Amino acid sequence: MLKRGFGLLETIIALGVIITGLVSVISLSIANLTNERDTAMRYQAVNLAREGIELVRNIRDSNWLAGTDTWQGIPPGGGDFTIQFNPETQKFAFAPAGGEESVEGARVAQCGDGIYIQPSSFICDKITPFSRTLNLTFKSCVGEFSGDEFASVCEAAGNPTPPVALEISSTVSWNQGAKNITITDILYDWR
């Protein structure tokens, strides 16, 4: 007579195959969710870094339109800064980065739907995990540009000693995974 059904060994093997399949599916799902979160954070960080450069570009362009000095409102010595919004004047201002008291100033807050700023003296809806700092380095035709690929800028400008360019490095870091993104751009005084 033939025995029907599974024996103990066949049942254990079948359970092993099923468990291996389930563990694989769950592991892939967890890895996918982690990668999705990391990608979303990186995407947001890149946009915040780009926004930092665009804020400095806006100050330069506003100065050009107003007929004032190109670099007015930008700290003349360069260095590391945060750029903070003042809601009373509706303008952006630079604040030195570094030291204990500026750590919170480098944090980016979400104020409303899709509006991200570095608050100076007011509370926003939500503090994000992101911090943004800008490194500003002025370039003049004395030393910085001589002998490199930007020498034509100095020649075209008649080799002036005031700054002809501003190198901006916008760094956004976040605490989930201790990651950071840096975007660098050079703005010229080509007016």
Report what the structure shows.
With 191 residues, the chain is α+β, with helices and mostly antiparallel strands. It has one domain. It is built from 3 helices and 7 strands; from the N terminus they run H-E-E-H-E-E-E-H-E-E. Strands 1, 2, 3, 4, 5, 6 and 7 form a 7-stranded antiparallel β-sheet that branches. Strand 3 and strand 4 form a beta hairpin. The radius of gyration is 27 Å and the shape is elongated. The N and C termini lie far apart (99 Å). The model has no long low-confidence stretch (mean pLDDT 81).
Number of domains: 1
The major sheet is characterized as:
7 strands, antiparallel
- Determine the mean pLDDT: 81
Strand content: 25-35%
* Span of the ends, CA to CA: 99 Å
Number of helices: 3
Radius of gyration over all CA atoms, rounded = 27 Å
Low-pLDDT segments: none
Helix content: 25-40%
In sequence order, what are the helices and strands, one letter per element?
Answer: HEEHEEEHEE
Overall geometric form: elongated
Quaternary class: single chain
User: What is the structural class?
Assistant: alpha+beta
Number of strands: 7
Keywords: Membrane, Transmembrane, Transmembrane helix
Transmembrane segments: 12-33
Describe, in short, the structure shown.
This protein is α+β, with helices and mostly antiparallel strands and 191 residues long. The chain has helices at residues 8-66, 103-106, 151-156, and strands at residues 79-86, 91-96, 107-110, 116-117, 126-139, 165-174, 179-188.
